[in-house]
Design goal:
This protein has 544 residues and is an alpha/beta fold. 56% of the residues lie in helices and 12% in strands.
Length: 544
C-alpha cells in the first residue's frame, strides 16, 4: 500500500492496512517521511516505511503553496487595499486640517488686528480730544481711519494671497503623493492578481509529466522500494501515486509475478476546484486507471461517475471513509475548551480553509448568543487568525475556541461531548457535491445532530437518515436559523441513533467487509471477519 503522506493522520490508510494485516495478509505501507530520512514504524501487524523524497519536491511544494493559496493572496490584496484607504483618509484629513486651520487663523488674525487698531484710534482720539479744535481732531481721526482701513485691506489681501498660494502648493503636493501611492497600489494589486491567475493556471494542462514534476521525485523514491518487495497487490491510495504503482506493477509482471493493482480514488478528480491542476491530475488518472485490476472509491456517486468517465468494465467498489470507533480519549472536547455540562457546544472538526466555509459558521455564531463553537484544527494559519478576528470584532471571541487534534482512533469519543456537529463545506465544486467525507460519519458515531451545507450527496444522506438538517451554503443567516432549530430538537435527533440501525448500516465493519471482498476476488482467498476483533485502530509505533 502506497500513499503520498506520512500516514499519521490518514485514517483510511491506517484502517485498511490494519484490517488487511489482521485478516492474515502481509501488509507493507510506504509513505513520505517528513524528516528527510527513512523511518520504519509498525501499525498493529502491518509495517510502515516512510521514504525520503527529494528536496526539490519539498521546495516546489513550498513555492507552490505560496503561489497557489488563493486565500493568502486575496488576504494580501485586502491588506494592501486597507493600507491605501487608510493613507487616503490621512491625506484627506490633512487637507481638511490645512483648510480649517488657514481660515480659522485668518479670522483670528483679522479680529486681533481690528481690535488693536480700534484701541490705537481710541487712545489717539482721547489725546486729541483734549485740544480745543474738535473739527481738526475729527478730520484727523477720519483721515487716519480711512488710511488704516485701506492699509489693512491691502495688507490683508497680500497675506491672503500668500496663504492661498502656500495652501495650493501643499494641496497639489499631497494630491501628487496620493496619485503616486494610488498608482503603486494599482500596480501591486495587478501584480497579485496576475500571480493568482498564473497560480490558478500553473500546471493545468493535459501533459501531467510536465505540469506535475514532483511525480518524478515520487518515482525515484517509491519505485525501487516497490521493486524490492515483490508484492502480490499494490494498493495506490489516491491519484498522486497511481502512475508510480501502475509502472511498478508492470515491472513486477515482467519479472514473472502476478502483481495486481488497486486504485483507491479518494476524490472525484475532475470535480476539484482551482487552483489545483485539475487537467493534469485528470490526465494522469485517465492514463492509468484502466490498468487497475480493481478500483475503490469513497461514495456511490463518484463510483458511477468514474465508470462513465473512463468507460470502466465494472462499477468501482464503494468503501466509505467511516471511522473505526476506538477508545475514548483521556479528555473530552468539552473539558479541553473549558466548558461545563450545561454550556451549549457546537463543533467543527477538520481542515480549516476558505473552501470549507468555516467563516460562515463563525459569522453565524453572532446570532446564537448562548452557543460556544469549538474548531478542532491542526495548526494556526492566516485563515484561523481571520476567524478569530471576525469573532473579536463581533464581540464574542470568548465563545470561539480552538481545540487540538487527537489520534484518529479517539476522534469519535473526543467529539461526543459536543451538542451539535457542523460541516460547512462550500457547495458548487462537483467534488464537494458528490463526496461523503469522514467527518460526517465521525459526527454520526459521536451521536451528534448534524448541520450540514446543501452539498447534494452529504445533505441527502443526513436528511434521509433524519440525523440532521442542511442549510444554504455560505449563508450565515440560513445557518443560524437551521442551528437554532436543530439545537431546539437535538434530543429528538439523538434518539434516532438509539432507535434505528443507522450506526450499524454506516459502520467501518460493513465497509471492511467490502474491502476484504475486493482482496478475496483479486487473490482467490477468503477472509474471516471474526479474525478482526471490533473496530479499534492501533497507534503507529517506531520499530526499534
Amino acid at each position: 500500500m502506497i500513499v503520498a503522506n506520512d500516514v499519521s493522520a490518514d485514517t483510511r490508510v491506517r484502517k485498511m492496512a490494519h484490517d488487511l494485516a489482521a485478516s492474515g495478509l502481509r501488509v507493507s505501507v510506504l509513505g513520505v517521511s517528513k524528516t528527510a530520512r527513512r523511518e520504519d514504524l509498525s501499525l498493529g501487524m502491518a509495517t510502515v516505511t516512510l521514504l525520503p523524497v527529494g528536496d526539490r519536491l519539498r521546495t516546489r511544494r513550498a513555492l507552490a503553496s505560496r503561489l497557489t493559496n488563493r486565500h493568502q493572496i486575496a488576504h494580501e490584496i485586502s491588506i494592501r487595499r486597507a493600507r491605501f484607504y487608510a493613507y487616503q483618509r490621512d491625506v484627506n484629513a490633512e487637507i481638511a486640517w490645512l483648510r480649517s486651520d488657514y481660515f480659522r487663523d485668518r479670522a483670528n488674525r483679522n479680529e486681533e488686528q481690528n481690535a488693536k487698531a480700534r484701541e490705537r484710534l481710541h487712545r489717539r482720539a482721547q489725546r486729541e480730544r483734549a485740544t480745543d479744535d474738535a473739527r481738526l481732531i475729527g478730520r484727523l481721526r477720519n483721515g487716519l481711519t480711512r488710511s488704516l482701513d485701506e492699509y489693512r485691506k491691502s495688507s490683508q489681501k497680500r497675506r491672503e494671497a500668500r496663504m492661498e498660494a502656500r495652501f495650493r502648493r501643499s494641496e497639489d503636493d499631497l494630491n501628487r503623493r496620493l496619485d503616486r501611492r494610488h498608482e503603486s497600489y494599482l500596480r501591486a494589486e495587478g501584480t497579485l492578481k496576475s500571480r493568482m491567475i498564473e497560480a490558478t493556471e500553473t500546471g493545468d494542462s493535459d501533459n501531467w509529466q510536465r505540469a506535475l514534476p514532483e511525480l518524478h521525485d515520487y518515482e525515484v523514491a517509491f519505485g525501487p522500494a516497490l521493486d524490492a518487495l515483490d508484492v502480490d497487490v499494490i494498493h495506490a491510495q489516491d491519484v498522486h501515486l497511481l502512475g508510480v504503482a501502475a509502472r511498478a506493477a508492470s515491472r513486477a509482471r515482467a519479472r514473472g509475478l502476478s502483481t495486481k493493482l488497486v486504485y483507491d480514488a479518494h476524490e472525484y478528480i475532475q470535480g476539484l476546484a482551482p487552483p489545483r491542476p485539475v487537467k493534469a491530475w485528470s490526465s494522469l488518472e485517465s492514463e492509468y486507471i484502466g490498468r487497475a485490476d480493481a478500483v475503490i472509491t469513497v461514495a456511490p456517486t463518484i463510483a458511477r461517475m468514474l465508470q462513465e468517465d473512463y468507460d470502466l468494465a465494472g462499477l468501482p467498489t464503494v468503501v466509505m471513509n467511516i471511522p473505526a470507533v476506538g477508545a475514548t480519549p483521556a479528555r473530552a472536547l468539552r473539558d479541553v475548551v473549558g466548558l461545563g455540562e450545561s454550556d451549549l457546544l457546537l463543533v467543527y472538526s477538520g481542515g480549516l480553509d476558505a473552501t470549507r466555509g468555516v467563516h460562515t459558521l463563525v459569522i453565524a455564531l453572532a446570532q446564537l448568543p448562548d452557543a460556544h463553537l469549538a474548531l478542532v484544527s491542526k495548526a494556526e494559519t492566516v485563515y484561523t487568525n481571520e476567524l478569530d478576528q471576525i469573532a473579536r470584532e463581533g464581540g464574542y471571541s470568548d465563545r470561539l475556541h480552538f481545540a487540538p487534534f487527537v489520534e484518529p482512533q479517539n476522534v469519535v469519543g473526543y467529539l461526543s461531548s459536543a451538542d451539535v456537529g457542523v460541516h460547512t463545506i462550500v457547495s458548487g465544486p462537483i467534488n464537494h457535491e458528490v463526496t461523503l467525507p469522514n467527518k460526517v460519519f465521525e459526527y454520526m458515531h459521536a451521536r451528534l445532530p448534524i448541520v450540514i451545507s446543501d452539498c447534494k450527496a452529504m445533505s441527502n444522506l443526513v436528511e434521509s437518515l433524519g440525523v440532521g438538517k442542511a442549510f444554504v451554503s455560505e449563508d450565515p443567516l440560513s445557518l443560524a436559523e437551521v442551528l437554532e432549530e436543530v439545537i431546539e430538537h437535538r434530543a429528538e435527533y439523538r434518539r434516532i441513533y438509539a432507535d434505528s440501525d443507522v450506526l450499524n448500516m454506516y459502520s467501518w465493519t460493513t465497509q471492511r467487509a467490502r474491502l476484504l471482498g475486493v482482496y478475496s476476488d483479486l487473490l482467490g482467498s477468503s477472509f474471516s471477519l471474526e479474525a478482526i476483533e471490533g473496530e479499534a485502530l492501533p497507534s503507529l509505533a517506531i520499530v526499534t
